[in-house]
Amino acid sequence: MLKVVVIGPESTGKSTLSEQLAAHYQTIWVPEYARQYLEELPRSYEQHDLLTIAEGQLALEDKLATQANGLLICDTDLHVIKVWSEHKYGTCDPRILEHMAARHYDLYLLTYIDIPWEEDPQREYPAPRMREYFYNIYRNLIAGSGVPWVEIKGGFEERRALAITAVDKLLETRNS
């Protein structure tokens, strides 16, 4: 099973791109579990919720992987939870880090901050400076992960084309 993660700051088109890639490759994509969890949470989230979100994300990924055609598109991974936890609370639950170390992904698609911010009650940092701050953190994390990655930027069609080219290259590498 090849796993591609679409990662990046808030409001950079990750879900849209994940859905487009899944449609293009006629496979399954894993939505961001945190969205569903936070929509159903009757209070503001707290640090302990992040472990629940992380484990929910992994369970959803495992469940949907059984329906994929050998390629699974993931709209986020636990790097995002690590970044949020460290930014908001100054630390990350070691169990989240253990889960991260146990997972393998084959390609990261890092979405850039060059599309307009869209307001959403779950989004917290619309300021351009903060979007850039988070982009740089994600870039540094995935650049140090040892997993191939591609920056995805431009308009929606350009982003889609860049992502398809990157996934096609991954599939060619696997098949050669």
UniProtKB/TrEMBL annotation:
Keywords linked to the UniProt accession: Nucleotidyltransferase, Transferase
GO molecular function: nucleotidyltransferase activity
Entries under InterPro entries matching the protein: NAD_biosynth-regulator, NadR/Ttd14_AAA_dom, P-loop_NTPase
Sections of the chain in a coiled coil: none
Start and end residues of each NadR/Ttd14 AAA domain: 3-159
Top-level taxon in the UniProt lineage: Bacteria
Residues annotated as signal peptide: none
Protein name listed in UniProt: Nicotinamide-nucleotide adenylyltransferase, NadR type
